[in-house]
Design brief:
Strand content: 25-35%
Helix content: 10-25%
Number of strands: 27
Largest sheet: 5 strands, parallel
Strand order of the largest sheet: 3-2-1-7-20
Radius of gyration: 23 Å
Number of domains: 3
CATH class of the largest domain: Alpha Beta
């Protein structure tokens, strides 16, 4: 029992203030009520939901929902010394200190690195122009909304068709902007969907008026008087440029873990041993410990062990919360293993639904079926499930009266778009927790037949696992 464990007071320093940090604080305080917790953040805000930045741009999220842990009251309730606008530039794990920009040092007994990831800015001509921004954090989202509401922005080019880029594209389209999306790969959501599924997903977005340029790269951003005016793009493998006139550019070209915090230490990074190439974040074990047992890492900054038993870098909200909680319990003196990071994901778009989980790049076979208005594709490797994808099936756009998120007095589809929060992530969660049951055993004809029939929830219940047939 937790109450039976004796603790000596110590100092815990947490670098970062996102979902992993907040979950670690809650878990730690369930076990250890007395030790000091210091949280260092380079931002001025309390913990917020990082997957809701498009809601901030639209202006349809309350402060209670955005600052989902309760704002600054969270730190008082959990007796945390929160220090905003204190940028950490590194740690010295031999001396057990965290180093603040400017030279200040803060000693620790246990340290949690939960500083997340930063938006990658490609080395393009013109990225310094006004109107060019990333869309990773709350500062970015507030800035984009301010530019749009000012009336200065009528057209936007989004570089990158990953989840953030796609969600921002739909958001800005419904706010009245002309939207262009440039993607280097041959499909949208290239890390979530294969080509066939991506084409099914993109079609309704394209029909709505969003312009896509697949297999294209941005070669330069042009402007005058310090503000962007056009983006120069080329089809891959050619030197034929075309120009898209625009008032704003959003760089949605991926994120990178903040491994610079351990650059001057012996703490291990996730490296492909065969190639020597860095393929992820700070490497952690099942207890969220780095190669230094007094330094933990959680969230987007680290590579942990996923539900299939692989070391992977997963920059998503659910695994950040999960890994943060595991780290918090273990820093407090327990010995709690992470059962495997979940990596289900979905895009929060209204015109189309899509999601995925696991991996599919090295799958050996796949099969598809329909389930609750979605086309689901399951990927197999060595006879076992290794991943899945889904997209919403085409249907007539009409209000679903059973959707509990909708006001029954809605009169038009446009009102539905503004008010519907979507259920993509919940659907992805159901699928993930179903398929995770099969990671340790081979698929057989009966299981495949049941899955194709859509009996997912029944299969997920052990009581029906045999009697289904």
């Amino acid at each position: 029992m937790l109450s039976a464990i004796l603790f000596s007071s110590m100092r815990v320093v947490i670098v970062g203030n996102g979902p992993a940090s907040a979950s670690a604080i809650e878990a730690f305080r369930k076990v250890d009520k007395d030790s000091d917790i210091i949280v260092l953040s380079d931002e001025e805000f309390p913990t917020y939901a990082p997957n809701c930045m498009e809601n901030v741009i639209r202006g349809d999220i309350s402060e209670e929902a955005l600052f989902y842990k309760g704002g600054f009251d969270f730190y008082e309730e959990h007796r945390v010394d929160f220090r905003p606008k204190r940028e950490v530039v590194g740690i010295d794990n031999r001396r057990k200190v965290v180093i603040i920009k400017g030279g200040d040092e803060i000693p620790y007994d246990k340290c949690l690195l939960a500083a997340g990831a930063y938006a990658f800015v490609p080395p393009l001509q013109g990225v310094e122009l006004g109107g060019v921004t990333t869309a990773k954090n709350l500062y970015d989202a507030k800035k984009i909304r301010e530019w749009v509401l000012s009336g200065r922005v009528k057209s936007v080019v989004i570089v990158g068709a990953g989840p953030i880029g796609i969600e921002d594209a739909e958001t800005l389209h419904h706010m009245g902007l002309e939207v262009h999306v440039v993607e280097f790969f041959d499909r949208v959501l290239p890390r979530m969907l294969d080509k066939y599924m991506a084409e099914r997903y993109m079609k309704p977005l394209e029909e709505a008026g969003i312009h896509f340029y697949l297999n294209h790269q941005v070669v330069a951003i042009h402007g005058e008087d310090g503000w962007v005016e056009a983006v120069e793009i080329r089809p891959n493998g050619t030197d034929r440029s075309r120009f898209i006139r625009t008032d704003m550019v959003i760089l949605s070209t991926g994120v990178r873990p903040r491994t610079n915090l351990v650059a001057e230490t012996d703490i291990k990074i996730h490296i492909n041993e065969a190639t020597g190439r860095v393929v992820g974040g700070i490497l952690v074990n099942e207890y969220q410990q780095t190669s230094d047992p007094d330094v933990y890492a959680a969230g987007d900054i680290c590579s942990g062990i996923d539900a299939w038993g692989n070391h992977r870098w997963i920059a998503l909200f659910p695994p950040a919360q999960q890994s943060g909680a595991i780290a918090g319990f273990n820093m407090a003196g327990l010995r709690v293993k992470n059962p495997g990071l979940v990596d289900y994901n979905a895009v929060k778009t209204r015109l189309a639904t899509a999601g995925s989980g696991g991996t599919f790049e090295d799958a050996e076979e796949s099969f598809s079926f329909e389930w609750e208005g979605k086309l689901v594709k399951v990927f197999l490797k060595e006879g076992a499930v290794c991943g899945y994808q889904f997209v919403g099936l085409e249907k007539k756009r009409q209000i679903n009266p059973k959707n509990r998120f909708l006001n029954p007095n809605i009169r038009s589809w446009s009102e539905k778009l503004l008010l519907d929060r979507g259920l993509g992530l919940e659907a992805s969660g159901v699928l993930f927790h179903h398929f995770i049951r099969f990671r340790e055993r081979k698929m057989n004809e009966r299981l495949i037949r049941a899955i194709k029939s859509g009996m997912l929830r029944a299969l997920a219940n052990p009581a029906f696992d045999v009697s289904l047939y």
